[in-house]
TrEMBL record:
Coiled-coil regions, chain positions: none
Name used for this protein in its record: Putative transferase CAF17, mitochondrial
A single GO cellular-component term on record: mitochondrial matrix
Source organism per UniProt: Rhizoctonia solani
Ranges of residues in domain CAF17 C-terminal: 83-195
Subcellular location: Mitochondrion
Signal peptide stretch: none
SUPFAM superfamilies: Folate-binding domain (SSF103025)
GO terms assigned for molecular function: transferase activity
InterPro entries registered for this protein in UniProt: CAF17_C (IPR057460), TrmE/GcvT-like (IPR027266), YgfZ/GCV_T_CS (IPR017703), YgfZ/GcvT (IPR045179)
Keywords in alphabetical order: Mitochondrion, Transferase, Transit peptide
UniProt superkingdom: Eukaryota
Keyword Transit peptide recorded: yes
Start and end residues of each stretch annotated as Disordered: 121-143
């Protein structure tokens, strides 16, 4: 998210920085960097600290403190099995020409879609042998969180993110639109600031 500075009212920062001019710019900035905020992203009584990337952002101390869920949080940290994380996504109506290599590019023509919408993964026919006994639709993948201009955040199973990256799965959800039920393709994109070790080891489990 960059640096935070305290300056007197009316004064300009003494260093060069990109200042978000309005709430929309700030929201886009944090979404593109994979930073959750507020009840749309961190749901009360449901959100797990590591799912919300608090460990990667320095928001957890595993040596001290006392809070609800501390034992589970510490145990998860030491076992190293984190199945879901909030990750930036790009949204596009199906069929979409976009690929997993596509950049996260805001598109003001795309409306804001309802949060807490369930996202499903489906196995591509080209990735499954004819005699494969693997299910066509794996178990629940995740949930759409805050989004604007065709980019957003989603809580996704990391194993399914890997499947999309390998070209084996496609993520999507259905939403009623002007033309009836519309299918939206979800393309996850890992934040560049995630530690390399977490990009690999935290996908296990």
């Amino acid at each position: 998210m960059g640096d935070r500075l305290l300056v007197r009212a009316g004064d300009k920062p003494g260093v060069h920085c990109d200042v978000a001019q309005d709430e929309t710019q700030f929201t886009l900035h944090r979404i593109l960097h994979g930073v959750p905020e507020g009840i749309d992203d961190i749901v009360s009584q449901q959100a797990f600290p590591m799912d919300s990337n608090m460990d990667l952002m320095g928001g957890l101390d595993f040596r001290k403190g006392c809070y609800v869920g501390q034992e589970l949080t510490v145990r998860t940290y030491h076992t190293g099995v984190i199945r879901k994380r909030i990750i930036p996504i790009s949204l596009a109506l199906a069929p979409s020409p976009k690929t997993i290599q596509s950049r996260l590019e805001p598109d003001s023509s795309i409306p804001t879609l309802p949060t807490q919408t369930s996202i499903q993964a489906e196995r591509l026919a080209s990735s499954s042998p004819a005699n494969s006994d693997r299910p066509t639709r794996p178990r629940g993948t995740g949930t759409l969180l805050s989004n604007i201009h065709g980019v957003g955040l989603a809580l996704l199973r990391l194993e399914h993110v890997e499947g999309v990256e390998r070209g084996e799965l496609v993520m999507s959800f259905a939403q009623m639109g002007d033309r009836g039920s519309e299918s939206w393709i979800v393309l996850p994109k890992r934040p560049t600031w995630w530690p390399v070790a977490d990009n690999s080891s935290l996908q296990q489990g």
